[in-house]
Amino acid sequence: MALPTSSVITLHINGEKFTLPVDHRTTLLDALRERLDLTGTKKGCDQGQCGACTVLVDGRRTVACLQFAVAAEGREVTTIEGVADGERLHPVQQAFLDLDGYQCGYCTPGQICSAIGALQEHAAGWPSAATDDLRPESGPPPLTAEEIRERMSGNLCRCAAYASIVDAVAQAAGTRAIQPAGTQADSEEQAA
Amino acid sequence: MKEFTYQKAADVPGAVALLGADPDARFLAGGTNLVDLMKSGVERPARLVDVRELPLDRIETTADDGLRIGATVTNSDLAAHPEVRRRYPVLTQAVLAGASGQLRNMATVGGNLLQRTRCAYFTDLTKPCNKRDPGSGCPAIRGEHHNHAVLGASSHCVAVHPSDMAVALAALDGVVHYETADGPGEVPIGWLYLPVAETPHRETALPPGALITHLTLPPSPVAAHSRYRKVRERASYAFAIGSIAAALDVRDGVVHDARVAFGAVASRPWRARAAERILIGAQAVTETFGAAADAEMAAARPLAHNAYKVTLMRNLTVAVLGELAEEAGR
Ligand SMILES: Cc1cc2nc3c(=O)[nH]c(=O)nc-3n(C[C@H](O)[C@H](O)[C@H](O)COP(=O)(O)OP(=O)(O)OC[C@H]3O[C@@H](n4cnc5c(N)ncnc54)[C@H](O)[C@@H]3O)c2cc1C
Ligand code: SF4
Ligand code: FES
Ligand code: FES
């Protein structure tokens, strides 16, 4: 029985379905950029070392260069093209704009997708290597600059715009997390 | 990259059957190591069997009050799990010390254990390497080896195992469970990685075609008071140049129980049994911790450019055991 080395797959990207034939060797990153013209996701190292290709898969941040497109079939992929709500920018996008969280902008789509994932992980109470108190009942640790730097360490920036990236992530977190618990905005967030 | 076929396994027997005895077939989990090695040409499988959707993604308490961790649990979910954080904090810390948030979301427990060395010659197809190409030689011994082994190496290979997670599992006496066409089997983490000897290309004691299904951790009161510390060449997102997983139970100033394992010093996570023998029953003081490190590192055979690891491991041991002892005294 000779099995095929290519397949027709259906990818779910930013709420749309795309059906395309792929050689199994095609990474999700190359499928996005070369086949679907979704060039917002960038290729830096192609080896999992820089984070430029970060996309959300089933809501979690991942690197698109180390997964085969065929293995992403049936999963919900969100790229930088899909994070805004129509014309309304995602709070993380807005924060990067407000605080100049970039210079050349090449790493920025990956930084933004990574920050969106990182803030969700933090809100879910996941600790990081910068977290001292691991006890689950302690809840999410304070989102200090040290926490942000550690959680964002998978995204390199060749321009070293790190200081404003940390500020932007902190601001974006503030729009959601720094509200005192139980306020109107807070409960709306949770309902959404 | 060589062309390959791709199949998704739905259940454990199906995965084992799909892989079969084919030496050109590989299980694909998170892909963070395998896809990378396929790009560089180190791995050239003709068939991939995707195991990520197998029902092996749960963490459960066992009947003896230990923990059972499925092979496809992601590194992220393992680190964040309440029982792991509470009862085996060294494991959470070790996993969080590795890779990046994105990679930990993809990487699985099974894949983490079986990730290959980061020795630069191993991934460079223009260079000889006994691990990749048996009998071709080991250029690291006379070449670039500042992050290579000081313990348990041989004249055939001096590479280190890169996993942080496995170092914590070694300290915790974890057991690896697997499935083969002939039925299930298990191997303690201390026996999973084979001695280097003359066959560095033979890395694990798993039978050919074995699918790792889960790990078990025995109940371990001492583990509640445990810690992982990793030294690397930048603050985050880099492999270890030396690391320690330690657990300490101090009562009335005396070490009642201890577990110590070292990372990035050998071809496998290095359980520091000589150190543990010195520790247990001794006063929980700096001199004891230094003596324990010295006892373990007495077997070290550093190369020209990695003798710093002997000092590094001593300092790490004294520092981390000192902190654990101080916290126990509070
Ligand atoms: C840039 C970068 C930085 C990194 N930094 C670190 C670090 O600091 N510390 C660290 O510890 N790790 C680090 N890693 C390595 C990472 O942790 C591993 O690549 C990951 O854990 C592998 O898991 P996976 O599920 O992606 O495995 P895969 O890549 O899918 O598989 C790896 C191997 O395991 C086999 N396999 C997978 N699952 C099973 C199973 N259930 N049964 C049998 N065989 C199986 C595969 O066939 C393959 O041979 C880093 C990786 C990258 C790319
Ligand atoms: S140390 Fe091992 S992996 Fe590195 S070149 Fe030598 S044989 Fe190959
Ligand atoms: S391009 Fe994927 S991590 Fe660099
Ligand atoms: S803004 Fe230029 S690489 Fe980050």
Automatic annotation (TrEMBL), chain A:
Alphabetized UniProt keyword annotations: Iron, Metal-binding, Oxidoreductase
Which SUPFAM superfamilies does the protein's record reference? 2Fe-2S ferredoxin-like, CO dehydrogenase ISP C-domain like
The 2Fe-2S ferredoxin-type domain covers 7-83
Keyword Transcription among record annotations: no
Under the heading InterPro entries, the entry gives: 2Fe-2S-bd (IPR002888), 2Fe-2S-bd_dom_sf (IPR036884), 2Fe-2S_ferredoxin-like_sf (IPR036010), 2Fe-2S_ferredoxin-type (IPR001041), 2Fe2S_fd_BS (IPR006058), Aldehyde_Oxdr_Iron-Sulfur (IPR052914), Beta-grasp_dom_sf (IPR012675)
Q: Which Pfam families match?
A: Fer2 (PF00111), Fer2_2 (PF01799)
Tell me what this protein is called: Xanthine dehydrogenase YagT iron-sulfur-binding subunit
Organism listed in the record = Streptomyces pseudovenezuelae
From TrEMBL, chain B:
What range(s) does the FAD-binding PCMH-type domain occupy?
1-222
Its EC number is: 1.17.1.4
Q: Read off the InterPro entries from this record.
A: CO_DH_flav_C (IPR005107), CO_DH_flav_C_dom_sf (IPR036683), Diverse_Substr_Oxidored (IPR051312), FAD-bd_PCMH (IPR016166), FAD-bd_PCMH-like_sf (IPR036318), FAD-bd_PCMH_sub1 (IPR016167), FAD-bd_PCMH_sub2 (IPR016169), Mopterin_DH_FAD-bd (IPR002346)
Q: Which UniProt key words apply to this protein?
A: Oxidoreductase
Tell me which PROSITE patterns the record gives. FAD_PCMH (PS51387)
A Pfam family the protein falls into: FAD_binding_5
A GO term, aspect molecular function: xanthine dehydrogenase activity
Give the first-level EC class, as a single word: oxidoreductase
**What PANTHER family is this protein classified in?**
OXIDOREDUCTASE, XANTHINE DEHYDROGENASE SUBUNIT C-RELATED
Q: What is this protein called?
A: Xanthine dehydrogenase YagS FAD-binding subunit
